[in-house]
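wait is this the right file?? whatever heres the structure
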């Protein structure tokens, strides 16, 4: 199988974990390139459910090397908890997991900074997870961050922490908040993490280049999604990293020439967590029913997701900025009981129709959706694994989405289970499996 990027095409929670898990059986390496433990990838194996926050989804496949890239921010406490849970569940976590020595750390004071930032925004809160993601990336870009490789030099840790300590105390004083943190204890804790995690901490870009030189295949796993990308998302209601396919090069040290294909993941409808524009939001009892049927609650936080009709404007934009070769459409079965399904094909603003994602937040928030209606199929699709077995109305819906976004839909997921996935035999994705 070639080297393939998996990236979210909407606002996240599209089912990337399932698709990565499905494809991981055909590669030798799964490498994650961005984000922290604010993202949860859920994988269902029979009657077992795994929620992975930091560890790449390939960990569930014996013999697959999992790489946590330099583009991630890592809370070492959360990482050790996740590793412990995997081991307790009987999952092998040995030399099959390596961590970039250039990945930055999330430290306890980052959560305090995030809470202060959200409080200062008042009614304009971003709706973050308060897990310290943003402030850790701020320290990274502010050149005061602490990296995984620093854990291997315990004597230098107090000095490494000094600049981030000064920044933290300045912010706290400005906010009228007592800067309560035990930096000496933190240095000791980090040194202990270094002892335990030391063998995993490596130059992962070099590891990846060597695996490619051996002819191995890599699956590049993204967290969050394109509309949450720091550069290309609905700013400022975005995450703090490069969640689109472009994040592979910076987040793993892989040149674009080593990428052979890009697969976008999109739900058959649209969701987002937290604040920010969602033009096709449904509202009312129907939104509640879709949320219930789709189990639309955050894997990391449990927060209910806002639900909307499929937004072709957003997904077409994602196709363009990522260069998707194909899209995997997930959760088609959630729409099974609807007599009619809607597709957002444009936005109405100030008397005109917009067919592109506006950069201006004020415009995006004022947009009204323009819908196209299609008949529903009112027939169960859950568990269907062949394209021809789908109801005709469901096939027409998928094909219409493909037309509107300008990209083939090569895979369709009909339940959370790994095996309940349709691979269209005439698709680009099928050629990757050949």
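ok assuming it is, sequence goes like this
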């Amino acid at each position: 199988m070639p080297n393939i990027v998996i990236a979210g095409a909407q606002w996240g929670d599209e089912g990337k974990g399932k698709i990565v898990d499905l494809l991981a059986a055909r590669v030798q390496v799964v490498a994650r390139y961005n984000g922290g433990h604010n993202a949860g990838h859920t994988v269902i194996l029979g009657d077992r459910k795994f929620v992975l926050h930091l560890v790449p989804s390939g960990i569930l496949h014996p013999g697959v090397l999992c790489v946590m890239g330099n583009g991630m921010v890592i809370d070492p406490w959360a990482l050790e908890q996740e590793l412990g849970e995997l081991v307790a569940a009987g999952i092998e976590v040995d030399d099959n997991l390596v961590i970039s020595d250039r990945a930055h750390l999330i430290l306890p004071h980052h959560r305090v900074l995030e809470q202060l930032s959200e409080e200062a925004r008042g009614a304009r809160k971003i709706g973050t997870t308060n897990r310290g993601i943003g402030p850790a990336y701020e320290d990274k870009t502010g050149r005061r961050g602490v990296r995984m490789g620093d854990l291997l030099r315990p004597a230098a840790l107090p000095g490494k922490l000094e600049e981030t300590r000064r920044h933290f105390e300045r912010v706290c004083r400005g906010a009228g908040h007592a800067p309560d943190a035990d930096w000496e204890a933190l240095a000791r804790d980090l040194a202990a993490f270094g002892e335990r995690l030391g063998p995993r901490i490596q130059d992962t870009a070099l590891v990846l280049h060597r695996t490619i030189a051996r002819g191995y295949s890599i699956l590049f796993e993204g967290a969050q999604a394109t509309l949450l990308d720091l550069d290309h998302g609905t700013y400022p209601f975005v995450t703090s990293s490069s969640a689109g396919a472009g994040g592979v090069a910076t987040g793993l040290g892989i040149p674009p020439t080593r990428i052979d294909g890009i697969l976008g993941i999109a739900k058959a409808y649209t969701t987002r967590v937290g604040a920010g524009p969602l033009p096709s939001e449904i509202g009312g009892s129907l939104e509640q029913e879709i949320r219930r049927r789709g189990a639309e609650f955050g894997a990391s936080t449990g927060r209910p997701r806002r639900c909307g009709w499929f937004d072709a404007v957003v997904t077409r934009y994602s196709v363009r900025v990522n260069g998707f070769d194909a899209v995997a459409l997930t959760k088609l079965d959630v729409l099974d009981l609807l007599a009619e399904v809607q597709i957002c094909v444009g936005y109405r603003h100030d008397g005109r129709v917009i067919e592109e994602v506006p950069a201006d937040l004020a415009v995006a928030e004022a947009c009204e959706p323009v819908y196209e209606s299609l008949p529903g199929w009112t027939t169960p699709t859950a568990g269907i694994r062949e394209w021809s077995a789908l109801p005709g109305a469901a096939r027409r819906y998928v094909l219409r989405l493909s037309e509107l976004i300008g990209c083939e839909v090569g895979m369709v997921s009909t339940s959370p289970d790994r095996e309940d996935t349709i691979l269209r035999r005439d698709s680009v994705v099928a050629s990757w499996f050949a």
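The CA atoms of residues 70 and 103 lie 4 Å apart. so i think its the right one actually
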